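Translate sequence into structure tokens.
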Amino acid sequence: MKPFLFVLNVVPSQFNKQCEDIAGAKAHIWIISDDKDKAKARAESYVIGALWNVINFEHELEIFPEHLQKLHEAEAHLYKMALQQGIAADFLAYPKVPGNPTDSVKIRRL
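Result follows.
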């Protein structure tokens, strides 16, 4: 089994009522799998199940041991979660109405 990281551009589906103020997001999805195509299909299924629509896959990466040592904290956390659960994801969203660039970032659970 190998770790894969997919970065997808996504938008909320019409059924995603928690994200009516969100224009889109970058989904970082870590999957532990023996096959890249299976992992990619699982990533897409996960996104759709979370009520998002896939615009495109921006990155499709097989992660090697030398990459793991260079992960920043948030990605390292997702990797560890994927090792335990087989899959882990974060959605880094941006609003429909842009704010002031100096506004602080708002983090919320969806």
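Note: The CA atoms of residues 73 and 95 lie 24 Å apart.
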